[in-house]
Design goal:
By secondary structure, the chain is of the alpha/beta class. Helices cover 33% and strands 26% of the residues. It has helices spanning 12-19, 120-132, 177-188, 198-209, 242-258, 269-274, 277-284, 299-302, 380-451; strands spanning 4-8, 34-41, 47-48, 55-63, 71-78, 100-105, 108-113, 140-147, 167-174, 222-229, 261-268, 290-293, 311-318, 328-330, 335-340, 345-355, 360-369. It is flat, with a radius of gyration of 32 Å. The model is unreliable at 1-29, 104-110 and 156-164 (pLDDT under 50).
Length: 456
């Protein structure tokens, strides 16, 4: 049986504390602040058998103060020519970090990566995949949009609201996250080209999100854009018209804001950060967040901190053992999963969630660990998430074992080196003794003769 607990906190105690000399910077919980916290697996009272990493636990948390449990998210990828450059990190995990190379791309020469799987575009795709992982396909629809633009698209005049042809929808909004992963693979398979038409990317994403309410399959959803770029806007007017290009982006951001679309922007690398006003403003004008990424290779890691809700913290622990869930993953939409170490028999489990304003919820359940009993059936989405997290857990354990083994080998090595040194010292001492033995005998013989000693 699945139960949901929504906790309403009035916050009068916080107000009183502030009046009585408490910290005025402590969050004051508003009367409409509520947190919905749900443990979806295992059910309360379930019997589980666990794994090498512990018992898998999954759930969902959400702040209900003006937020919808449903999300529509458009991932916007910059596919301009500069994204062919190396990210400076081993994005594809082949053990080789791509090096900058100058080579021909189409009719011009440009810097490339010796390993295309480590390009800036590859980093964007990897970051998008990390974002995708863990999102709940029952609540969150996603789409993929790309943008670049050619010099022929530049115009000396015209309205910034003209259809932005340089942007394309690779995959419309869908609950089928496998289609999103397939779309990302398709983008990665295309060679980057063109210039940076940011306004086109913003407008295309907004159009994807603004479907008539009567035809939407995700009514009442929050509308979110995750926007990646490694440059500054050079279109629609051409690179010589910096101000006009920036204004085109700001106009597109205003249209997004009017449609209740929130943009979370990422400025990747030195060029994007030399003139970030367009990326900063698109986030500020829509109530989103701006994230500077000085090194493209760090983009993937930064995606772990992206959240579409106002949750500040979600935690899972065993009251019985005192152990915290490890590993534990909180997705951008409030979905969470983790492995929790338990003892055989009855275990008390607690999940907690807190918002940025201080509202909180607590969910408790009892779980019995019995290695001989089959586990309750898992939803298909949880099977995938559990297996992925299990791989993470086992990889961590392997690293720990390797570290311990290295320490053991280092210790053995030190002992072996000591023994070798000790043996070498003993051998050298024996040789020294042998070398000294003959002269000592000769001196003894001479001394006997001098002293006229008779040896019986």
């Amino acid at each position: 049986m699945r139960r949901t607990i929504a906790v309403l906190l009035i916050g009068l105690a916080s107000v009183a504390a502030a009046r009585d000399g408490g910290d005025p910077h402590d969050p004051v919980v508003r009367p409409d602040d509520r947190v919905e916290l749900e443990v979806e697996y295992p059910p309360d009272g379930a019997v589980v058998n666990g794994s090498a990493c512990g018992v898998f636990v999954a759930g969902h948390a959400l702040s209900l103060s003006g937020e919808s449990a449903r999300l529509d998210v458009v991932i916007v990828l910059d596919t301009s020519l500069s994204t062919i450059d190396t990210s400076g990190a081993d994005i594809n995990g082949n053990g080789i970090v791509g090096r900058p190379l100058v080579g021909q791309v189409g009719p011009i020469f440009d810097e490339q990566s010796s390993d295309p799987g480590d390009s800036v575009l590859a980093a964007e795709i990897a970051a998008a995949r990390l974002l995708l992982r863990g999102l709940d396909p029952r609540r969150t629809r996603l789409a993929v949009v790309t943008f670049s633009g050619e010099a022929s698209d530049a115009r000396a005049g015209g309205s910034a609201g003209d259809p932005p042809e340089p942007a394309s929808t690779i995959q419309p909004l869908t609950f089928d996250h496998a289609l999103i992963d397939l779309a990302l693979s398709g983008v990665l398979g295309q060679e980057p080209s063109g210039s940076t038409h940011m306004a086109a990317g913003v407008d295309q994403a907004t159009r994807e999100l603004v479907a008539p309410a009567e035809t939407s399959t995700n009514p009442g959803s929050q509308k979110v854009v995750v926007f990646f770029t490694d440059g500054q806007p050079t279109l629609p007017y051409g690179p010589a018209f910096e101000r006009e290009n920036v204004l085109a982006v700001l106009d597109a951001a205003e249209r997004a804001a009017q449609a209740d679309v929130r943009i979370h922007s990422f400025a990747i690398g030195s060029d994007a950060l030399e003139g970030p006003v367009a990326v900063v403003e698109m986030a500020a004008r829509t109530g989103g967040s701006f994230t500077p990424v000085p090194r493209a290779g760090a983009l993937v890691e930064l995606m772990r901190d992206v959240h579409f809700t106002s949750l500040s913290d979600v935690a899972l622990r065993s009251v019985t053992t005192g152990a915290e869930a490890q590993p534990f993953r909180l997705a951008a939409d409030g979905s969470w999963i983790g492995f929790l170490r338990m003892e055989p028999g009855r275990n008390r489990v607690e999940a907690t969630a807190r918002t940025e304003s201080g509202a909180a919820a607590l969910r408790s359940l009892d779980v019995r660990l019995d290695p001989d009993m089959p586990e309750p059936a898992l939803l298909p989405m949880f099977v995938v998430q559990r297996n992925e997290l299990l791989e993470v857990c086992l990889a961590v354990e392997r690293r720990v074992r390797m570290s311990l083994e290295k320490k053991r080998l280092d210790l053995v090595g030190k002992e072996l080196r000591f023994e070798i040194e000790e043996a070498r010292t003993a051998r050298e001492l024996r040789l020294e003794i042998e070398r000294a033995r003959l002269p000592a005998r000769e001196r003894a013989e001479a001394q006997r003769k001098m002293l006229k000693l008779e040896i019986d």
